[in-house]
Structures are given as C-alpha cells and as structure tokens.
Amino acid sequence: MKLLKDILYGVSLSAVSGDTNVMINNVHFDSRQVEMDDVFVAVRGTLTDGHKYIQKAVELGAKAVVCEELPDILVNGVTYLKVVDSNSALAVLASNFYDNPSKNLKLVGITGTNGKTTVSTLLYNLFKKAGYKVGLISTIKIMVDKKEYKTNHTTPDVLTINQRLSQMNEDGVEFCFMEVSSHGIHQKRSEGLHFAGAIFTNLSHDHLDYHKNFAEYRDIKKKLFDALPKSAFALTNLDDKNGKVMLQNTKARKQSYALKTYADYRAQILEKQFNGQLLKIDDNELWSKLIGDFNAYNLLAIYATADLLGLEKMETLKLISELENVDGRFQYFISKEKITAIVDYAHTPDALKNVLVTINALRTGNENVITVVGCGGDRDKSKRPVMGHIASEMSNQAIFTSDNPRTESPTTIIEEMEAGVEPQNTRKVLSIENRKQAIKTACKLALANDIILVAGKGHETYQETDGVRVDFDDFKEVKAALAELDK
Ligand SMILES: CC(=O)N[C@H]1[C@@H](OP(=O)(O)OP(=O)(O)OC[C@H]2O[C@@H](n3ccc(=O)[nH]c3=O)[C@H](O)[C@@H]2O)O[C@H](CO)[C@@H](O)[C@@H]1O[C@H](C)C(=O)N[C@@H](C)C(=O)N[C@H](CCC(=O)O)C(=O)O
Ligand SMILES: Nc1ncnc2c1ncn2[C@@H]1O[C@H](COP(=O)(O)OP(=O)(O)OP(=O)(O)O)[C@@H](O)[C@H]1O
Ligand SMILES: N[C@H](CCC[C@H](N)C(=O)O)C(=O)O
Ligand SMILES: [Mg+2]
Questions:
Q1: Which atom of ligand 3 lies nearest, measured to the CA of 404?
Q2: Residues contacting 415, CB < 8 A, separation 6+
Q3: What separation in Å is there between the alpha carbon of 43 and the centre of ligand 2?
Q4: What residue ranges line ligand 3, CB within 6 angstroms?
Q5: Alpha-carbon gap, residue 92 to 376, rounded angstroms
Q6: Nearest CA residue ID for atom 29, ligand 1
Q7: Three-state secondary-structure class, residue 207
Q8: What was the ipTM of the complex prediction?
Q9: DSSP class of residue 50?
Q10: Burial class for 1, CB neighbours closer than 10 Å (0-12, 13-18, 19+)
Q11: How many Å apart are CA 95 and CA 184, to the nearest integer?
C-alpha cells in the first residue's frame, strides 16, 4: 500500500476533487485490471479512449482516477485528479509507485531503427561475462539478471518497465540495457526514467504508418536524448546522417562513434569472412563472429558504452570477441549438401539491404542467393514495394511470402511487394503465400554452395494471422526442410 499523495509527487495537477491522503494498492491504465483501492489512469489510445472506462474502473473499486477530462458524475469517496497529459502522469506515478528503481542502477536506453536488440543483448551478455548482475529489456525477452520473462513489446508499458526495474533493484542488478522504440517514446513509456546513458544506432525507413513523416519519426527518437540528465552520456553514430541531430539539445555528455568520419570512438574493418570479421579499434585488433558492416557499428557502440560505463578497454575487447550472434540475427547453419541457410530479423528496407550486401560480399564463386521474405500486416505499407525491390534486385531468386499478416490479406501484402519489382527482375520472383511452403521451395531450388536467406521474423516463434498466433519458427522450418532433402 502507498499513500496517494506520495506517488503524485512530480505530477502536475490541474484540478483535484477528493482526498489525496488515502492509501492505494496499485496503479493501472487498463480498467479490466483494476481491483479494490487501485488508481486508474485514463489514457487516450489509438483504438479507444481510456476515459470511457472510468466508471467501470470505479465500479471495480478504483479509489482514485487520473484523467485529462473529469467525468460528468463524480462518485463520493473517489479522488479525481485532472492532468494535462495522462501518459506523462502515468510515467511519474509508475516510477514513484515502484520507488524510482531506475535511479538505483545504471539504465542505458538504446534507440534507432535497426540494431536495438542486437546492441542491448550484446551489452547484456558482455556485462554478464564481466561478472556483473545485469538486466535486459528487449524485443526478444526481459532478463532480471538470470531470470527470463516473456514480452510482447520492444519497449513495454511504463508500469511493467518500473516493475521489472524494481525487481532488478531487489536482485542487486547494477546495469540495465533497454530498447527504446519510437512508439515507446511517443507513448511516453520511457518518460520519468533516470537514464545513465542513451545510444543511437541509425535511422531509416520504418513505422511511417504511425508517425506522420520521417522528420517526426526522427524528432521522436531525439526526445530520448533531449530528456537525458547532465550526468548521463549521449552516444551517437556519426556515420548516420541523423546522428548529429540526436545530440543537438541534450544536456548529457556528448560522445560519438563512426567508421567513416572522425568520432570519439573509431573502428576500421580489416578483414571480412563468413565466420567472422577482424576490426581495429583504438589500435587494437578485435576478432568477432558477428559479420557485416552493420555489426561493426554495433560492436563499436558496445565497446564505447562499456568504456563510458567504466569497463577496462582490453578486458572489453577480449570479452567482445567471445560474443555470439543474437537469436534470429544472422543465425546460420550449413547443411550436409553444403547449402548455407541464414535466418535474419531484417524487417525494414535498410536491414534487408544490409544483410544482402553482407551475403553478396562474401560470395566466392557463382553460388546463388535465394531470399524468402514477407512484410508484416498492420504495419507501414510503404516498406513493402521497397523491400520487394531490394529482395528481387539483390538475390538470384526471391520468394515473396507472408510474415505476420495480422488483420490484413496476405495476398494484398504480397501484391504490394510485387509492385516494387523492376520488369527485368520479375523472372526472379516467385510468390508463395504459405511461409512453410515458401521455405521448402527455397530449399528445393538450392544447389550445393547456395545461400538461403529467410528474412523478417528472426527469433519469432509464431506467425500471427487474424489475431491468432500459431507456432512458427523460421530456423526450425529451414533446418527441417534441408534435413528432409539431405535424406
Ligand atoms: C499502436 C500502439 O502502439 N498501440 C499500443 C497502445 O494501444 P492503443 O493506444 O491502441 O490502446 P487502445 O486499445 O486504444 O486503448 C486506450 C486505453 O484504454 C484502455 N482500455 C481499453 C479497453 C478497456 O476495456 N479498458 C481500458 O481501460 C487501454 O488499456 C488503453 O490504456 O497501448 C497499448 C497498451 O500499452 C499497447 O498494447 C498497444 O500496442 C499495440 C498492441 C502494438 O502493436 N504496438 C506496437 C506497434 C508497438 O508498440 N511496437 C513497438 C516496436 C516498434 C519498433 O519496432 O520500433 C514496441 O515498442 O513494441
Ligand atoms: N546497426 C545496424 N544497422 C543496420 N541494420 C542492422 C543493424 N543491426 C542489425 N541490423 C539488421 O536489422 C535486423 C534487426 O536487428 P535488431 O533486432 O537488432 O533491430 P531492432 O532495432 O531491435 O528492431 P525492432 O525495431 O524490431 O526492435 C537484423 O536482423 C539485421 O538484419
Ligand atoms: N517491432 C517491429 C517488428 C516487426 C517484425 C515483423 N516480423 C512483423 O511482424 O512485421 C514492429 O512491430 O513493427
Ligand atoms: Mg528490437
């Protein structure tokens, strides 16, 4: 139980009706979860408006209601608090309710279109190897030191974040690495958190269905940096044309990394092979199993972060060289027939291009590249023709298929991908709606030394159609299909 007055500390209230000297049990933004003596925060969403459920929440026992508009009928014994922005108020309430757990550890936020999961997971693994208790909040999972929790979002809601951070406090976690998505920043899921640092990876085409345009998408990412305290570091990628923008208005210590331009942390790629690459960082050589120029950026970002958080440089380099690929990110195996199958979470045009550039650069002869790819439903439609174009242009054979169609027609999504294929590439494209069949077909078409890329779903273990998730795992599917052919 907490005193309402205490958890309201820092919330700017425009009107109060009722007593704030009352004990409350919990905080919720979903009326369906409200129980006796809870606080209900009414948030305006994209599908509905939490204000519609205030009465329902009170019926279920809410002792206090936080809202942007007071309801017509105020119930006796319930405290009503009017605020300008419910999401911001929720963020402050959540931090206060859990005793501001982000202040008791070093929380680092990672933002950017691609690379957030890779960088945050590598940092988690690196700091664990260095002997620390570490936390991770990522697309794949949440880790409270060694305890694993499932997640549905890249950046969870602000109550879940604070709840997990508070658990981290209890377990003595010293560092937490957290992905901060643009949706998360926009919906203020990361507000009120005390960051020790923030990292910007890159910015390219994604989520232009949700954000009005690219400039708005960029400015939302920048808000993470704008809100950093003076004590934090703000680490940006200067090779990305939006890298500098992130640092424009931050109070934090400005730090940068780059491969092509002058920066505080610099690296050079000395050698590229299929099973790894050799980098030069700070006059020291680093061998990593993670390949691709994009991973050179990821590795440099984690090296810089480790330094900024006080790890010893040589020790960091040694530990980085032991890091494995993150699940579903360039995860590969070679079949008995010498066919290489790669599963990668590339679900944006830039990621798909990067992965195909990496694969094509590693070809030694006339082996074929066969790409199986789809685009998610209920997500940015403008990505579809661009990804269709890239897959058909940069592969010898492209097979368009379903990703997570969600509520959309898989046929329509594939047609939108096909619209991006240049006439000279149409002969290279097959469209097979069923993802299992598409993967099987790729395996049947592959000859010895060929490379199959299955892109878009990476670590995901489901496929979502019409709100129903069925088990589906790209890595298992491609492995089974190739094993079948090996018999
Ligand atoms: C577009 C989007 O981000 N939507 C998120 C948003 O939902 P919403 O705004 O549509 O909520 P809503 O359904 O309209 O409801 C409004 C309010 O009424 C409340 N309500 C609703 C019904 C009821 O009976 N009672 C009640 O109180 C809801 O709890 C909510 O507070 O707030 C919900 C609660 O936090 C989220 O679950 C939901 O995520 C949806 C499921 C989603 O798919 N989000 C994706 C796009 C997302 O956030 N992705 C990013 C990654 C993107 C990246 O790759 O960078 C992520 O961080 O995961
Ligand atoms: N630094 C990078 N620059 C460009 N592409 C990258 C980078 N790192 C990874 N990728 C590509 O993007 C894909 C997704 O990577 P990752 O999961 O790390 O990104 P993310 O930012 O977490 O994505 P999401 O927004 O879905 O959470 C990878 O599978 C790889 O193809
Ligand atoms: N975080 C991304 C993941 C996309 C993954 C892709 N497989 C899809 O389902 O579209 C999003 O929610 O847009
Ligand atoms: Mg991610």
A1: 9
A2: none
A3: 30
A4: 154, 347, 376, 379, 403-404, 456-457, 460
A5: 34
A6: 30
A7: coil
A8: 0.94
A9: G
A10: exposed
A11: 16
- C-alpha angle 385-418-347 in degrees, rounded to nearest 5: 50
Classify burial at 279, counting beta carbons within 10 Å of its beta carbon; exposed 0-12, middle 13-18, buried 19 or more: buried
Residues annotated in a binding site for meso-2,6-diaminopimelate: 379, 403-406, 456, 460
User: Which residue shows structure tokens 């299929």?
Assistant: 274
Write out the DSSP string of 7-46. Answer: HTTT--EEEEES-S--EE--EESSGGG--TT-EEE--B-S
End-to-end CA distance of the chain: 63
400, containing H or E segment: strand 397-400
| CA nearest neighbour of 247 among 270, 226, 278 | 226
The CA-atom distances, in angstroms, between 298 and each of 60, 141, 301, 310, 374 are 48, 19, 5, 19, 25
The answer to whether 82 touches 8, Cβ cutoff 8 Å, is: no
What torsion do the CA atoms of 13, 14, 16, 22 make, to the nearest 10 degrees?
0
DSSP E strands, 319-364: 331-334, 340-344
For ligand 3, atom 1, name the residue with the nearest CA. 154
Nearest Cα to 202, choosing from 145, 230, 242?
242
pLDDT tens, N- to C-terminus, the chain (487 residues): 999 999 999 999 999 999 999 999 999 999 999 999 999 999 999 899 999 999 999 999 999 999 999 999 999 999 999 999 999 999 999 999 999 999 999 999 999 999 999 999 999 999 999 999 999 999 999 999 999 999 999 999 999 999 999 999 999 999 999 999 999 999 999 999 999 999 999 998 777 777 778 888 898 999 999 999 999 999 999 999 999 999 999 999 999 999 999 999 999 999 998 889 999 998 999 999 999 999 999 999 999 999 999 999 999 999 999 999 999 999 999 999 999 999 999 999 999 999 999 999 988 888 999 999 999 999 999 999 999 999 999 999 999 999 999 999 999 999 999 999 999 999 999 999 999 999 999 999 999 999 999 999 999 999 999 989 999 999 999 999 999 987 7
127 and 207 in contact (C-beta within 8 Å)? Answer: no
Specify the pairing of strand 27-28 against strand 39-41: parallel
User: Residue 377: what residue type?
Assistant: G
Q: What are phi and psi of 64, to 5 degrees?
A: -145, 150
Place of tokens 């395996």: 443
User: What are the backbone angles phi and psi of residue 74, rounded to the nearest 5°?
Assistant: -100, 130
